[in-house]
Amino acid sequence: MKQVSIKSLLVLGIVCWALGVSAQKYAGGDLSMLPKYEAANVQYKDPNGQRINDVLGYLKTEAGFNIVRVRLFVNPSGETGVCQDLEYVKSLGKRVKEKGMKLLLDFHYSDTWADPSNQWTPAAWGSLSDDELYQKIYDYTKECLEAMNDAGAMPDFIQTGNEISYGMLWGLKGNGNGRRCYTSKDDNWDRFRTLLAQAGKACREVCPEAKIIIHTERAGNWSTTRGIYERLSTVDYDIIGLSYYPEWHNSISVLKTTVQNCHNTYPEKEVMIVETGYYNNWYPSNATYDFTSLWPASAEGQKKFLDDLVTALKDLDYVTGLLYWFPEENPFNNHVYEPWYNHGLFNPSNGRATDGLFSLKAFRGEVETTGIEDNAHGSITSKRGAAGAYNLEGRRCQVAEGHRGTYIVDGRKVMMK
């Protein structure tokens, strides 16, 4: 039997560790409206004005997306943006998986938008007692996940609720808010924990490899964020998911403090920014914070916001995901989404991809590289860079044209000649 030196084993271990680090960063967006835009023949174009025929493929290859989030409603109400029933989500989820991207399934457990001010029970579940509701959320979650699996759309990440800062399944809309949870009171937390436990149980049974996200929306307030996750400490989940919109949640430095505190307090949990975004035109008049002097409400300001956000987060190993909300918004030639939200990463006046679309990939550590050749797969060229390069001693390095040697790039062994 051939003897292997300790040094060789150490080098191999370091390389494997480096690959693992590279594989755990995810950048992408919530693309829940993309099929509606495609059906309406909305024109998506690259920065040069060329029509993009495969938007999902373009987002992967050119914008560096490796994860897509899709929301799911129980019986969608049909209001603006609320159209994602199970059949819709299975179809889009299958496309995402076929592209080789990760899928984040966002259960809203509602017939309409679920957010901190709206966590209304689906109409069909409205007459259920709490005990019946505990069983229902388990059954519904399990049935949906089984259907996704059968459709070739098994999620890799699962949100058991959307922006559930104050609980979920409060009851039918208009019947009061007695089911809300506040960190200053003990009321309703046992009920909330049981609902999450039942949903998580179904996730573990059907998708044992998927990571469960508990998603809240108090990133601008560490005290409240801490109080929520402290009260949910007995719930089985993997990732703290946060929404971050500067107009509501304050500066990037405030977000970074919250993120760092999350890690310090719950070091066993990953952190993901599962929603973020900025304006490409007007700024909301009712915003809590005005950052237009730093980031104008324009394509240029939008890109600067994203560049600054990526710079603040990309070197934090425990922050493993950054997802933009509604990047596909594009009212250029067919106004599918009313009202115009003006968060999209496509120019509303001509349908062209804005520079901000290409900022997200830097979160994954992509760098500008050219001339990389792959021994096993033939010649490959990266126009916008690869997601991290390591030498065979496991050290991260910059790879540029003219550099010779063998490197680990995007999880593969490549050679520069």
Q: What report would you give on this structure?
A:
With 417 residues, this protein is an alpha/beta fold. It contains ten helices and 15 strands. An eight-stranded parallel barrel has the order 1-2-3-4-5-6-7-8, surrounded by four helices. A hairpin with a 3-residue loop joins β10 and β11 (378-379). α5 runs parallel beside α6 (189-206). Mean pLDDT is 88; it is low at 1-23 and 368-387.
- Overall 3D geometry? globular
Mean pLDDT: 88
Please state the oligomeric state of the protein chains shown. Answer: single chain
- Helical percent range? 25-40%
Q: What is the H/E string?
A: HEHHEHEHEHEHEHHEHEEEEEEEE
The counted number of beta strands is 15
Strand content: 15-25%
The count of helical stretches stands at 10
| Main beta-sheet strand count, sense and barrel state | 8 strands, parallel, barrel
Order of strands across the biggest sheet? 1-2-3-4-5-6-7-8
What Rg do the Cα atoms give? 22 Å
Uncertain runs are: 1-23, 368-387
Helix/strand/pairing class, anyone?
alpha/beta
**Straight-line N-to-C gap:** 34 Å
In short:
With 417 residues, this protein is α/β, with parallel strands linked by helices.
What are the key terms here?
3-stranded antiparallel beta sheet; disordered N terminus; 8-stranded parallel barrel; alpha/beta; single chain; 10 helices; 30% helix; 16% strand; 417 residues
Write the layout of secondary structure elements.
Blueprint: H1 6-23, E1 26-30, H2 34-39, H3 55-61, E2 67-72, H4 86-98, E3 102-107, H5 130-150, E4 157-160, H6 189-206, E5 211-216, H7 222-231, E6 239-244, H8 246-249, H9 252-265, E7 270-276, H10 299-313, E8 319-325, E9 366-367, E10 373-374, E11 378-379, E12 386-387, E13 389-390, E14 405-409, E15 412-416
Parallel strand pairs: 1-2, 1-8, 2-3, 3-4, 4-5, 5-6, 6-7, 7-8
Antiparallel strand pairs: 9-12, 10-11, 13-14, 14-15
Helix pairs in contact: 5-6
